[in-house]
Amino acid sequence: MSISTTTTSMPFWKEYPERDNEWVRQYPTKHVPVTEEEVFASRPMGVYVHIPFCNRLCFSCPYIKHQTDRDLTRTYLEALKKEITNYAGRPYIQDHVITLGYIGGGTPTALTATQLDDLLGHLFGSLNVEEGADFSIESTPVDITERKAKVLLERGVRRISLGVQTFVAEELKNLGRPNDPEMLKESIRLLRRCGFENINIDLMHGINGQTMESWEYSLDVAIELGVTCISFYTYMEFAQVSTKRRKLPPVPEKAVVDEMFLFAAEKLTKAGYLGYYGDCFAKPGCQPKYGETSWSEDVPIIPLGPTATGHLRDHWYFNEPDIGRYIQTVMEGRLPISMGKHITRSEAIRRSMVLGVKAGRVRRDTFRRLHGVDFMEMFRAEIDDLVDKGLITADEDGITVTGPKGWYYLDNISKAFYSPEYRRYPQHLGADISSFIARQPVPVQITTRPTTEEAGCGH
Amino acid sequence: MATDTRLLDLAERVPIPSPHDDIDKVRLYDLGMRRSALMAYKRPTERILAQVQDDMTDLVEVGFNTGLLSLHVAGKLPDLAVSGVEENQNLVDVAEDNLTLAVWANSAGDVEFEMAKLHRMPFPDDSADIVFSFSSLHRWRRPVETLKECARICKPGGVVIIEDMNRHAEEGHITFILQFVKEGGEEFMRSLQAAYTRDEVADLLKEAGLEDWQVAEEDLGLVISSRSLEQVSE
């Protein structure tokens, strides 16, 4: 049997040297039905709201925050509302729908119930917030009350995260926090009574005086209380704490702290929690969508408040860190954008890898839809190396961070995708370094033709 | 693609015209160091302590700033005499206040601070077991002569250890520090701009006739020593 196909010229298709005479003016066919709704569909966007106040400043916490002060808080909230209004009036923002929100601090619930209600009312009323948008808020067991919990729920905040740190009284004392474990447990029960179904608690390992046994005890209490999400952090002792000066027992050895991490990862996995970001474990369906979606889906984020970091219009940037200057700038009608960087196309691709792996997995189809490239091909060398090291697995659908080894090394994995220019550079901590930047024009990379990456054709 | 683009303005050395000429600023600088620099003093202290041997009697700090390192080292070595030399009156005054507080707290060790020119120190030849300096070299007015002076006063079996910032330290590391120093950023960057690079220090040593000394780049700094530091600490 002989099978052959002869390609002949068609009225609209000629092969060189025959001259084609379909005068090209559009994209080729293969069209499908397109509706007005599709063309004008709003794209998803997130919002981060920073509340830099705490009712009680813990000596072990190094972050910038202010003691709640009636006048300062009131002035700040006025500025914050003005910043929201400024963003809300911009057509680019109006073209998007808010699907994600995170209210962090400080302690957002250091605000009164009335202030929270007013702020959330303004936020939800000004921006185009999707029905059922995923909003999270940070709190502490001390600052949350029934009235505040109800305000949050009524306004549409569905996930709450409590900074518990430990359920051991002695360890709470060593962190400079209110040290009644019963009060902590009661705050979780209160939230559940009020109607919160998705409750995260933060736990710390590596605290002064902590042992493997006491760490297991805190994890057991959390699991028994039925919280839906547990995030754990390694406690870093900062100079202002000084174990010796405060006569605190020492922090556990690094090897013990590492063991605590792996122990918790295994215990929580067995208890039915799934891992995210290496140190966050959530019951199925209760994962923190703000981080997962904004990172994996490259959702732009509006940053609100001093030091808040956002990602809009091909720039990442952070807001003026000084609260006084922040208020002044906003009240003058300007956005308080301080420093940041334009993200080129090749850096945007890398950024999606760097942040995407933080969520534990990067999907090939999602990535291709977002960036039009096959990351498995583009980063083949990096991926092969990570697979060899046992840090990720790769298949047809994409890559997945291994547990617990990959979770433990998650930030190493993430940084494997930094471009050479940013290797051995730190992340910003919200400081204004503008006065130290070289004044002469920054030398430009001169290339005779676009790199494969820049051209977006590396697949 | 890697570029050689430097973000920060550190290509050329810019000496500080009149360092520490305002006593109030010196007091603020000292307060800032006392509050936050304990970690930064840890390594230089350990490096000095690692060189101490049983028969040693005298240590000299060249350019003691506000005296914190001398006090810190002397507190750990109560049987050794630590003599500090500084040529700026404001620094000497604040160091004296710090010494007074240490005496008040019964934890001064055997320390004395003295005002003198760094390139003509008031010590005999071969009189110090360890000559050390930390964060001072960048404002030495006569660095070549001062290096020679360090060599002159150091005993034949002793050691000179001079640490200061490296103007060409990794830029990522510098930006990291800048995020922490906050209001001290201006001061930090002016000092860094005035600091030497590894090659510039090598040139100074050559000019001073100290070709056999060593220069090592370490994190943000340079460690200059009259001999290999591993020898004694082993």
UniProtKB/TrEMBL annotation, chain A:
Pfam families linked to this entry: Radical_SAM
PROSITE patterns: RADICAL_SAM
Designated name of the protein: Heme chaperone HemW
CDD domains cross-referenced by the UniProt entry: Radical_SAM
Signal peptide as annotated in the record: none
Organism: Streptomyces composti
Stored InterPro entries: Coproporphyrinogen-III_oxidase (IPR034505), Elp3/MiaA/NifB-like_rSAM (IPR006638), rSAM (IPR007197), rSAM_horseshoe (IPR023404), rSAM_sf (IPR058240)
Coiled coil residues, start to end: none
SMART domains from the UniProt entry: Elp3 (SM00729)
Ranges of residues in domain Radical SAM core: 39-274
Automatic annotation (TrEMBL), chain B:
Coiled-coil regions listed in the entry: none
An individual GO BP term: methylation
Keywords (A to Z) from UniProt: Methyltransferase, Transferase
InterPro entries linked to this entry: Methyltransf_11, SAM-dependent_MTases_sf
Domain of life (superkingdom): Bacteria
Domain Methyltransferase type: from-to ranges: 61-162
Pfam families (UniProt xref): Methyltransf_11
One example GO MF annotation: methyltransferase activity
Name of this chain's protein: Class I SAM-dependent methyltransferase
